[in-house]
Amino acid sequence: MVGEGVMAMDKALKEPQVVITDVHKSFGTVQVLKGVSMSVRKSEVVCIIGPSGSGKSTLLRCINALVPIDKGSIKVDGIEVNDPKLDELALRRRVGIVFQSYNLFPHRTALQNIMMAPVHVLRQDKAEVEARARKLLAKVRLSEKADSYPGELSGGQQQRVAIARSLCMMPDVMMFDEVTAALDPETVKEVLNTIRELAAEGMTCILVTHEMGFAREVADTVHFTDHGRIVESGDAKAFFTSASDPRTREFLTQVL
Amino acid sequence: MESIQAWFRRLYDETGINLTIFYDPWDGLKYLKGIGLTIELAVLSVLLSLVVGVVGAWLQGVRFAPLRWLVYGYIQFFRNTPPLAQLYFFYFGLGALVPTTTNAFGLAEPILNNFQWAVIALSFFAGAFNVEIFRSGIEAVPHTTVEAARALGYSRLKSYIHIVLPLAIRICLPSLNNNLVNLVKTTAIAYAIAVPEALYVANQLWSDNLNVPEMMNVVLVTYLTLVGLFVFGVSRIERALHVPGYTPS
Asked: For an engineered disulfide with B38, which of A59, A214, B113, B197 has Cβ 3.0 to 4.6 Å away?
């Protein structure tokens, strides 16, 4: 019995949730992604690192179809993103994204920000959504800020509300696009703690980050991108100490 | 009431300042009706011009290019011609083309009267500015905010209703306020097609009583009061829409 349980867990862990195959994307004449492939298993924490302009943020936006891809395939829970008849809502309720600039809705309170999408888009019961939203606010340790407007919150607080807002859609995958880049060092910690907890709970996470220490600590897998390609991938523990590609090593010596 | 009338009659007797509207009930009622019509004209034109503004701003974003050109042409025409000329264009130009009906006395009567033409002309005049004002508000909503809404599963229409418009209105309220104040004042040009609003009635009264300077002052004070009330109302709305910690750019 015990063995079976482990087997089932193992299978769940190995089951790829996001499969990206040979994705190309150009903006005008600029080729941003030149054949990117990777896969993300359930509950895996994947960090994408690399210099600015290497296509990391674009890749995240391709995964939830904010940016249409030119060529290749992206599958999330079996949903093909590059399908003209794509059900955008079905995709986007599975994939949450948190942005560098928080992008909360400034005319609504923290609690309302979290509740809006499930009520407006998923047409869920308001009382139910509110109960869930309050739990999420407690989870990001901002219960007392429920009725504050985004303009009254610090950057770190806004970012945690943004994380709670994405979580309230009950996604299977969470994507973080340089979510600490606009924060001061102290508030970075609050946000990273929240992500660390999520990862520990088994949420599938895809992070674009410049926080190398954090990547080393929470990630299972690290991908290094440069000029629209994945240059090197590997197990997080080994990646930072024994990267083999010269370009990766050059980048790492500069940021570590 | 009696004493007020007596006071204004005595004012006339002793100083020659003749404010008939305050002691002659017939004149008073006539002027009140004029103010009433000015208010009616202002309220209807403000509402209709807002509709023109929202629809026009939306049409500016559609894919079908001829519709966009139409809106562009409309804005150019109404922004760059005098409102009085526009009013004449509607009333005498288009008014001559619309079909007529036969009234109870067997006379031909246009289906739109001068008041209705004034509402239409004023709404299109102010609406042209409102289109540009709304568009500037919509464009000022950060692209990233809209992107966040899309990522949360909002359709274009839903993000428009719940996020873009509520923010755009807050952003463009000051310029909208300006334009609508202008519109309230511009209702006075309905005088030119004999709509019996405040200015027109005042003209009739001063012709009867030869109290031109007095009525001129009354007219100015009337508009000052009306616009003052309007601005007060808009600032109440502005305060109600205020969001703590958020200053629309």
From this structure: B197
Nearest to A120 among B151, B154, B244 (CB): B154
Whole-angstrom distance, CA of residue A157 vs CA of residue A142: 7
Contact of A136 with A197, CB cutoff 8 Å: no
Nearest chain A residue to B170 by CA distance is A107
* Residue in B with minimal Cα distance to A90: B153
Examine residue B181 and state whether it is found in any structural domain, yes or no.
yes
Residue B88 inside a domain? The answer is yes
- Give the gap in angstroms from C-alpha A157 to the nearest C-alpha of chain B: 14
If you measure CA to CA, which chain A residue comes closest to B167? Answer: A107
State pLDDT tens for residues B64-121. 999 999 999 999 999 999 999 999 999 998 888 888 887 778 777 778 889 999 999 9
For residue B166, the chain A residues in CB contact (below 8 A) are: 107
Domains (range + CATH), chain A: 15-94+172-256 (3.40.50.300), 104-170 (no CATH)
- Hey, are the CB atoms on A169 and B145 less than 8 Å from each other? no
For residue B86, is it within any domain? yes
Instruction: Supply the pTM of this predicted model.
Output: 0.80
Residue B245 lies in a domain: no
**Strand, coil or helix: what is A183?**
coil
- Which one of A103, A108, A129, A152 makes the best mutation probe of the B interface by having the most chain B beta carbons within 10 Å? A103
**Closest listed residue to residue B175, CA positions, set B145, B138, B144, B142:** B138
Q: Tell me, what CATH number does B14's domain have?
A: 1.10.3720.10
Q: Which residues of A touch B152 (CB under 8 A)?
A: 92, 116-117, 121, 165-166, 169
What does the block give as tokens for A36?
């990117």
Got the DSSP string for B134-201? HHHHHHHS-HHHHHHHHHTT--HHHHIIIIIHHHHHHHHHHHHHHHHHHHHHHGGGGGGGT--SHHHH
For chain B, the domain total comes to 1
Which of B145, B150, B152, B238 would best serve as a mutation to test chain A binding (most A beta carbons within 10 A)? B152
B156 min Cα distance to partner chain A (Å): 11
Tens digits of pLDDT across chain A (256 residues): 445 555 555 545 567 899 999 999 999 999 999 999 999 999 999 999 988 888 899 999 999 999 999 999 999 999 999 998 999 999 999 999 999 999 999 999 999 999 999 999 999 999 999 999 999 999 999 999 999 999 999 999 999 999 999 999 999 999 999 998 888 888 888 889 999 999 999 999 999 998 888 888 889 999 999 999 999 998 888 888 877 888 888 888 877 7
User: How do residues B135-180 score in pLDDT, each as one tens digit?
Assistant: 999 999 999 999 999 999 999 889 988 999 899 999 999 999 999 9
Contact A71, A48 (CB under 8 A): no
Burial of B207 (0-12, 13-18, 19+ CB in 10 A): exposed
Parent domain of B122: 2-240
d(CA B194, CA B52) in angstroms, rounded, equals 25
- Kindly list the residues from chain A whose CB atom is less than 8 angstroms away from the CB atom of residue B159: none
